[in-house]
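Objective 1b of the project was to move from sequence-level analysis to a structural picture of ligand recognition. The entry below was assembled by the postdoctoral researcher (A.K.) and checked by the PI before modelling. It contains the amino acid sequence of the target and the SMILES of the bound compound, flavin mononucleotide.
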Amino acid sequence: MIFSLGSLQLKSNLFLSPLAGYTNLPFRLVIREIGGVDLCTTDLVNARSLLEQNSKALKLIESNEQDSPLSVQLFGGVKEEMRDAAIILVEKGVDSIDVNMGCPVPKVTKTGGGASMMTELPKTQELIRAMVDAVDVPITAKMRLGWDDQNLTAPDLARALEDAGVAAVFVHGRTRAQGFDGSVNLDGIRKVVEAVENIPVIGNGDVTTPEAAAHMIEKTGCDGISAGRGAFYNPWIFLHTQNFLQSGELPPEPSFDERMRVLRRHYDLMVEVFGEERGSMQFRKVAPWYSKRFGPVKPFNLAMVRISSRIDFEKAVADYLEWRKPFLDDQGELLARYQLPPMVASFMQEEDEHQAKQRTKIAVPKGPVEVW
Ligand SMILES: Cc1cc2nc3c(=O)[nH]c(=O)nc-3n(C[C@H](O)[C@H](O)[C@H](O)COP(=O)(O)O)c2cc1C
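Corresponding predicted holo structure:
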């Protein structure tokens, strides 16, 4: 499938939504290797920090040849800074630049960036125009439906930004005031689709299965979807969604061996990008998402949240593969519970308690967004 994002021809209409702290280079490479996605976006980067060559900002935009095509997401409310940061990014070879207009965190909105951009249409339009005029890569905007239920400005903003030259808009179907509460308002996304004339609108929010992606496209008429948390819970989501949209068929779930292979690959990339100790420590929060579909897993998770080196990682994997054997049949498939030998079955209560305590969702801030 070819998807036109301004001058950029993409192979997929499925996108990785930025998740600060998660959508780093190793994760982007993992999902690119699995497939189904083309343009991926970095975590949000402060335009001013980039201009100051702040080392943390530079680390956020770290990329390589395989991490392509790449969009960097900028935030900031100062036109000149956003424009100059865009110029720097293009000099570095970035393929597209996304402007954050949805972040509800006061630290970001107070600077005139993030969701506050949805409240000042003329100023936002001018800022985007300055960026579009300064660079020849597509500029996109990622917004929510509005500041709150009384100010659902997304349709007007999207239209104004189309006039200013954005190549596409990404819409998370919640308001700033909603944070991550409640459900995604598909009707709100549809209004944005109806408001623009030619540019694509990408729907976003709570897409965690291929069926949810198809449902969003059907109900809103959007041109594609982006997934953030869903991609982290299930890195196969883009490949499976692409298959599902094309054929109506859901591919089989990846095998245990395939999940383990990708987990290992993710670990290797974390070490490559962040160094052995930091990469290992950061992998502590990654491994439990893979292991959710491993079956009995308590000792693995307990070992993984303590790793600080490759030796620790390899030992955790090897010990787990050994521990898991009694749960398997001759073909290496998990036995049903009733088939487990009594000694092994006795682990299961402990295992159930462990799994009940595991996070089922990526932590999001709670309570009124004003105090996040
Ligand atoms: C932990 C976390 C970090 C996020 N960081 C960003 C970010 O840096 N930039 C941004 O535009 N949105 C960010 N978002 C919002 C997501 O991109 C996305 O719009 C939202 O999570 C809804 O989509 P999803 O249900 O597919 O995750 C973040 C969300 C979460 C949960």
